[in-house]
Design goal:
Helix content is 25%, strand content 26%. It is of the alpha+beta class and 468 residues long. The mean pLDDT is 90. Bound molecules: FE2/S2 (inorganic) cluster.
């Protein structure tokens, strides 16, 4: 059937049961993104992975792209299999998204062995009681506040966050002139009722997952923590895909930034609500992430990270107001970005080095931060040497025909016992693919069964009832 490429078409996505009207020329992957239908896109739509496989089960089936002709067998192409980033709708159609392409990240572990550190928050508080203004004493609210603050904390060049200043008159009067002043250096960043619990937010901004921690700044205890999937995953599961997309399409860089901020806001709001806190009690925020996540979060250009010599815009620590990026918090709360080390060794690794007190360590140590991007440091004789390597594809079964991320239905463990092959899937459901740990297990099982030699080569003439 001929189709006018300037016309839109209707797609029914199954099993989501979502219908979307296409924008002429957009890929099926883009249509799915707009409709919030999940289709994995490990390479970010560059046509070099196997994650966005879809099945046209009805309606007009687009002809396969040259790329897909190389990728699928002719029988699969004939039955309507395509990759979502490699085709566009040519008319109304029905598409089934297979379980493997719909898989969400299931393992998001944020707990670990915590060790207590003496809290030294950058913000300080001061409880202040002001005299009411009168005809005899009509001094401005802010001036009276500063006078009292100077008496309590000593004379400084006091400033006040403009948003905090706007709400100052109402806050003072509502609290009968007795308030808790929150200070960062010389700036008043919030005015609160007395005894308001001070809360900090710590964010571990990973490529695949985001760890979010609500911390009591008085005690240093973690009030709540949660792990969420990084929603930027729709633009590729690795940093290179996202850097490429963001560098080529500034509007997508903005979208990636917005997705992460929205996700953190949502998670922080639910954690606060669960603990009878308000998000405006968050007075300080620290964010650590790899350099690409750092740049996308702070809306810095990422082009330099995608081209040799992979130059970041900044490696130093950054400080800015949370409201500049609409992150929910107290009006003048700041975000502190942990400094990066290099283009692919980011603030998350710096945080780990701080966490293990690398600067005071005298032993020779190898420290690994294994994630989608793995960073490794060698601590030796007072010198720290760091490097990084991508490991996400290995962890998520990338470049394997049945590979998938660690989600429900993924085989996560494999062993051979005698003549039987044992598998374990996440969620104990029917298997739909293999995640990285299964690949490691399969290799080990194959080796133990004599199918692999010590160099990883498949043994010649190997025969086993389980492994063929
Ligand atoms: S091939 Fe389509 S997202 Fe990778």
């Amino acid at each position: 059937m001929s189709h006018d490429p300037a016309k839109t078409a209707r797609i029914d996505f199954e099993p989501a049961g979502v219908e979307v009207q296409t924008i002429p020329g957009e890929s099926i992957l883009d249509s799915a993104r707009r409709a919030k239908v999940r289709i994995a896109s490990a390479c970010g739509g560059r046509g070099i992975c196997k994650s966005c496989i879809i099945h046209f089960t009805g309606g007009d089936i687009p002809p396969p792209s040259a790329n897909d002709r190389d990728f699928f067998s002719s029988s699969k192409l004939g039955r309507g299999w395509r990759r979502a980033c490699q085709c566009s709708a040519i008319g109304d159609s029905r598409i089934h998204v297979p379980a493997r392409a719909r898989a969400e990240s299931a393992r998001m572990q944020v707990d670990g062995s915590e060790f207590w550190v003496q809290p030294e928050p950058l913000v300080e508080i001061c409880t202040i009681e002001l005299t009411r203004p009168s005809l005899a004493y009509p001094k401005a609210d802010f001036d009276r506040l500063v006078d009292r603050l100077s008496m309590e904390k000593g004379s400084r060049e006091w400033t006040i966050d403009p948003e905090t200043l706007r709400s100052l008159p109402a806050t003072l009067r509502r609290n009968h002139w007795l308030v808790q002043v929150v200070i960062f250096e010389n700036e008043i960043i919030a005015i609160q009722p007395t005894q308001t619990r001070l809360v900090g937010l710590a964010v571990d901004l990973g490529t695949t997952n985001i760890g979010i921690f609500l911390v009591d700044l008085h005690s240093g205890n973690t009030i709540a923590s949660t792990g969420i999937e990084n929603p930027q995953g729709i633009y590729g599961s690795d940093v290179i895909s996202r850097i490429g997309t963001a560098a080529q399409h500034p509007e997508k860089a903005t979208e990636m930034h917005r997705l992460v901020v929205d996700a953190i806001n949502q998670a922080a709001t639910s954690m606060c609500e669960a603990h009878q806190l308000a998000t405006d009690q968050i007075v300080d925020i620290v964010v650590a992430g790899n350099t690409a996540m750092h740049h996308l979060f702070t809306r810095l250009p990422v082009r330099g990270l995608g081209l040799a010599p992979f130059t970041p815009v900044i490696t130093r620590a950054m400080d800015f107001k949370a409201r500049e990026i609409c992150l929910k918090s107290a009006p003048g709360a700041r975000i502190h970005m942990i400094p990066n080390i290099a283009g692919f060794v980011g603030g998350d690794h710096t945080a780990m080095l701080i966490g293990i007190s690398a600067h005071t360590e005298s032993r020779t140590i190898v420290a690994l931060d294994i994630g989608t991007n793995t960073e490794i440091s060698l601590l030796h004789q007072g010198t720290i040497t760091s490097l990084s390597c991508p490991s996400g594809p290995a962890l998520e079964g990338g470049h394997i025909s049945c590979g998938m991320r660690a989600s429900t239905g993924a085989i996560e463990a494999i062993s051979i016992a005698g003549d039987s092959l044992r598998i374990k899937t996440i969620g104990d459901t029917d298997p739909i693919g293999l995640c990285g740990s299964a690949v490691v297990d399969a290799t080990a099982a194959f080796f133990l069964a004599g199918g692999l030699n010590h160099r990883g080569k498949i043994a010649r003439d190997y025969r086993h009832t389980v492994l063929q």
